[in-house]
## 1
Amino acid sequence: MDIHDSDSVRHPSAGDLTHDQRLRVQTLHEAGLTYEQIHKQLDLTRQVQYAITYLVTPNTRKGRPSTLEQDEVDLII
């Protein structure tokens, strides 16, 4: 059965998983559940695969680059 069957729920912009959600996914996978079973139980999308593959604690985002040059910042301070 494919995750993208017509009876499955569509998640247009699912967003990132929280630390607890990632931990729950990894725990269920270690208990022997497949991606499909975890997907159905937790109502998550492809995030299941990423949560199993990558770390429980996601990396912090880098943010928007500064529009000021370092010498301009020094001038303000």
## 2
Amino acid sequence: RFIDELSVDEKFLEEYAKWSLELFSQPDYLYGKPRDNFPCEITKDTNVPTSVHALRPSDIKCVGAIGDSLTAGLGAHATTPVGLVVENRGLSWSVGGDHTYSKVLSIPNVLRQYNPDLKGFSTKFSVIFLNGQNATNNGLNVAKSGDRSNHMPDQAEILMSRIKDEKLCDWNNDWKIITFFVGGNDLCSFCEDKNVSKHTPEQYVSYVRDTLDKLYNATIPRTLVNLILVLDVRSVQSLNSGGFVCETLHKRTCPCAAFPTPEEARILDDYVPQYHQLLLDLAASTRYDGRDDFTVVVQPFMAKTKIPVKDNNKIDFSYFAPDCFHFSGKGHAQAALSLWNNMFEPVGGKQWFWHINEELKCPTKEYPFIFTKKNSAKALEEYQRATHAPSVSTSTAKPEKHTTKHHKHHKSHSDSSFSKMQLVVLASLFLLILILFVLVITKRQQIRGFVHGAGRRHLHGF
């Protein structure tokens, strides 16, 4: 109904046409930057591991995903308002399989470089109010637009049913990666629900736990679950700067974060970090450690991602669909790259924000596997030595001082030397000024003008 109303709103249609033209005219908006040759060496081993802690990209035969509209690919190519109800599932960062790696960067398209026979990925598109979650080409992408954490246990049931009944994958023998990302709708709409306790951090994590329990207790074998920390929706408010279209659509997509009252803003400040921490604690527990062929790994790259900005410090809306909330094709590509890179960063040393302007990480000979909490110790120690990071618990390890520029470098030996040089220069300058001051006192009448001018020129040059 909301889209129907906007479709006959002349002002909105006019503004939307201008806004979408501005976005879609950018050369990398549809799919992100084009990619040339795949950067990683492709090695295959016929010895398939029995432990999830030795799982390599070439071992993965099947992908799936549960979540909401950000996994369904809603609105990624919405050139008109009608496109806002179209789910571009083939572009989905975690489970889309349209085109190839060179055109669409997604987890399945990277994995297909290692295993062309990969199964489970979604293709093409679906429409929310028609087939949505059950479209023919959805594969194991069972995400549903509008769903919240309380819907996830049902999605887990649908996912397992498709694996078993539709035989999209071999239940017993195929190694599977399932990406689980939910929470945005809980945070975006908590203020509109009369049942306030429905979206508390404790209630949120209980739904996530129930979902993971279903997967674990169903003894779905050979499975690694990527558990993605929820986006910090508080940044949505800054996206209102996109103008009339953004503000209008935010009233429906994320009202509690886009237009919060002071009390709602305070609640979000409390909820968001707790949503993150409780998932970290859940994954760090021993709850899912009883089997060697199943594990849950938190991938935190969404949690502290800041809104990308251009060189002029204005928001770069090219990462977003025209509704200024969901991802564009470029945004999906960036999320895919960041998830992949997180997978090859040790637990406790993972990046908490998008890997913007970074290259795809490649498995190495020493660490050819996807990192889990049981195989990360050595790599984490090396990472900490290289970055001078203190030793921290993997359940709470997270960067605390990231900025919108996304990169922060530690001081090197050359930085220290430069600081010492600055001290020497400053000391010398102070001594020179002191000498000049003495000269001024003793010979003020003869050289006042000269000293004043020379001193000013020297200070300006410094």
